[in-house]
Known about the structure:
The complex is a heterodimer. By secondary structure, chain A is an all-alpha fold. Helix content of chain A is 71%, strand content 2%. In chain A, helix 31 (653-674) runs parallel beside helix 38. By secondary structure, chain B is an all-alpha fold. Chain B has a domain at 2-51 and 66-99. Helix content of chain B is 59%, strand content 0%. Chain B has helices spanning 2-20, 25-45, 68-99. Chain B is elongated. Classes of the chains: A mainly alpha, B mainly alpha. Chains A and B meet through helix 28, helix 29, helix 30, helix 31 and helix 32 of A and helix 1, helix 2 and helix 3 of B.
Amino acid sequence: MTDENSVLLIIVLLPFIGALLPGVMIRGGRTVCATFTSLPTALALLLLLLLAPAVMRGETVHASLEWLPQLGLSASFFLDGLGLLFAGMILGMGLLITLYARFYLSGDDPMGVFYTYLLLFQGAMLGIVLSDNILLLLIFWELTSLSSFLLIGFWSHLPEGRQGARMALVVTGAGGLAMIAGMLILGDIAGSYQISEILMAGDAIRASEWYLPALILILLGAFTKSAQFPFHFWLPHAMAAPTPVSAYLHSATMVKAGVFLMARMWPVLAGTDAWFYIVATTGLVTMVLGALIALFKDDLKALLAFSTVSHLGLLTMLLGLGTPFAAVVAVFHIINHLTFKAALFMIAGIVDHEAHTRDIKRLGGLRRLMPVTFVIGTITALSMAGIPLFNGFLSKEMMLDAAQQTEWAGSQFAVPVLATIGALLSVAYSLRFIGHVFLGPVRSDYPSTPHDPAFGMWAAPALLATLVVLIGILPVVIVGPLVAVAGAAVIGGEPLPHYSLKIWHGVNPALVMSVIAVGGGLVLLALHSRLDRIWNALPRPEAKAIFDALVDGMAALSRDLIERSHNGAISRYLAILFAATVALGLVAFAGGSMGLPSRALLPVAPPVVVGWVLLIAAALFVVVMHRHRFLALVVIGVIGLMISVGFAYLSAPDLALTQISVETVTIMLLLLALHFLPKTSPKESSTLLRLRDAGIAIAAGLSVASLAYAFMLRDVSTISGYHLANSYEGGGGTNVVNVILVDFRGYDTYGEIIVLGIAGLVIFALMEALLKGPAAQRLRTTDLSDNRSRDRHPLMMVVATRVMMPIAVMVGIYIFLRGHNQPGGGFVAGLVISIALLMQYMASGFAWAQLRQRVEYHAMIGWGVVIAGLTGAGAWLAGKPFLTSAFGYVHLPPIEEFELATAMIFDLGVFLAVLGAVMLMLYSLSRIARSAREPVNAEPMDYDPTARGKATRKDT
Amino acid sequence: MEFVVASSIGVLTAGGVYLILRLRAFPVILGLTLLSYAVNLFLFASGRLAINMPPILSKYGAAAYTDPLPQALVLTAIVISFGMTAVLVMIALAAFLEAETDTVNLDRPGNADAPAKEGNSA
């Protein structure tokens, strides 16, 4: 990778890395925070300027990292003229907004959070304009939707903020989804997801029968993002955001993402009738409609929002015209709109900040009170109106020129007339902004007496206003080369059209239209108060009401569907699940083929028959007698026992050990739980229901049995040969099952002990919550004494368990130590020792035993996982992958030679986690007993023979 | 022998499925236990059956071993199904203590499988 390439990657990454800074730096104060926020932006801008000369020469900078090549997804970026223009705008505006927000946000606002969101957004936006892969572009596209959601809803205590944020997310998110589909189609037609390759395949794409669906889907994404009619309504509601956000997202960057996308795809998608009629018409309608509504908005930010909608419509229309000239004009207008509109938003923010209102009807006369703000506001508003000497004039003239050359459905006049009307309305609302806010007499009833803000707050808009004037007077010098290189990138390989960036083009149709627009605008402004009354009296569709009704309707529909299909009858879902599984299995079986049996049957020894009969009988007994819960539970133990014996017989000693110890713990747990549950189940399902269930059950049983029988008679090739061959040399153990667990498939085991630990903690948390709720009250009043034995802590049992304890622990340790080479290991050892402990608890009561317990079970689980994890990580020190084990043999006379393996430490972790989890589960159960007022005994047994004849011991 | 194992798997599956479709939490847990046995046996059987061939490497020359991999998988499955059963038992217990009934279905109109409303079923 060359230096240039890595520079481009760094530019993309900088905002994301920088997003970590503000949250930390806010501790140093707001100025420090703002400074550190501007650092990554400034650095990225500097790097961009380093790459700029090459791009201005017409070169393209590429950078690429392989990501998921199977999906055609790579992290590839490129910088051409269009990318340079947008990246420069995003980073430059980012700097100005950081400065402005430092002074705009009050001390109560969490500024660190704000700057973090801002940098995240900036990174996402940069990603969009620099991506060379449409899948990557889509990811960044969704990221802008998400980060703008956070920014719009930044003042989350305001309902408008939350609603506006949600609306923006729904509209742009839905558009984004449509666009994903469109982009996938596009990539499919072009045979590549690389933008630079798609741009080469324009002819093939336009000729494809999938062109129209792809076009519509992609345009849905672009139109929603760029607030085109009829999706324009979210933008005014997004104005609930803090003004720096509005200035950044809703004038300069995010809403231009749709325009950017249309410009990026222009060489591929433009030039067809479909493109012209969809894009140009939508743009034209949006332009006129936005300008019309803007004229009658009293809220300064709403006025600017609809003006933005209108100007986005203008850009869309220009791109929609499909001529190279119009496309270049669009590029030029993107620059101009950025400069004046961002400044205007900042001015609106300053007015709001100082006068505490942005209602135009309550303002006026600010010219004398805020002279600096007035000058900046006037310059930028005049540019928005398209008055000569300001940059808005130049691009508006060129726009009108492009419009008057356009024929729409056979009509010579439709486009020019509508464009002129749009321009006329634009003049009217721009002049209203100046006239009704700054001009007129000074009032005495401002909510707060306004004055010019600190320099830091007007510095950013002043800089933009300077640009407005400079571009307005010297367009060729200031932006000529940039427009040329970005325009060339938009129109693709075609030569640049003839155009000239100058103020005086002579008397031409565009000038005439412009004069009409200014004159008409002045007339409209003079008539404004009268028109305003008429406008307010007219019935108008309220977009928010329609949107809310739509959302409510969808929500009601989903709720209805859910309540019908998901009605809380779990038995029904399960019946459907089992029946469907059996049916799918049968379908698959019917569609497949099966070879002849290749294995001989193993002989059946007489004891096996006895075991089999016991197992089948026990299973049937459980099913028939399941209402008598206690009986069923005891008989389940028989089944478990038979299965353990079966494992032992069928060459699986490890499984037999595990099964029998798990069996013991499970039955004990169920018995303890049954203490608090009803002892019988009522007979409540109808005969029909039971027949249905029996049918499903028998079908499932038959299918599984025949499947098992079928594959047991056939050979299969497995990977087990590898495990058998490498167990000793590679893993250092002769018990292959244990070596698989702690070495070959150590990851699985590591995950498993974590799951087991989580299960223990879940039970603990569940009981904690339960005993704080109404259940605790109920438990205190429940009388469970009927279930209790008269002799709760029998002498014989206490003595026997005490004697058993050290033996059981020794057996546990023995099983643990031999695990690597003989049946056993951490799992079984953990279970054996927990059974030994359980016996103590059962003999003398949980509270008594608990007092003698020194280690926290939570800690035991934690240490278990940590030890296993560290052992695994230790392999890194030796330069091996995670969980690689090492082992060696030690000979210490007089003991026989023995082995030490890191796998053993891993197994120790397993042991601790299993022990901790099992004990934590039982501890949680005992807490229920305690809260059910079960007496706590201070003595190990109820009747203590040694106490006979002595004085009465103190009772508790 | 294969028939013995297959028929055991079948009976355990059928019993488990039937109990899981009952309307009370406790039989459902019993059913899950039976089904876990069946699934573990089934997985184990996928390694094919062998008698007197445990996968413990012998020091004395070449010997035949059964397939160790399904055994390792089943061992994990046994322990995991224990954890799952424990969590389920606690949830059932908590639900019973909170709601005073241990039915598994919500009592809603139009819910054909739901039992008639009643108090403590003990």
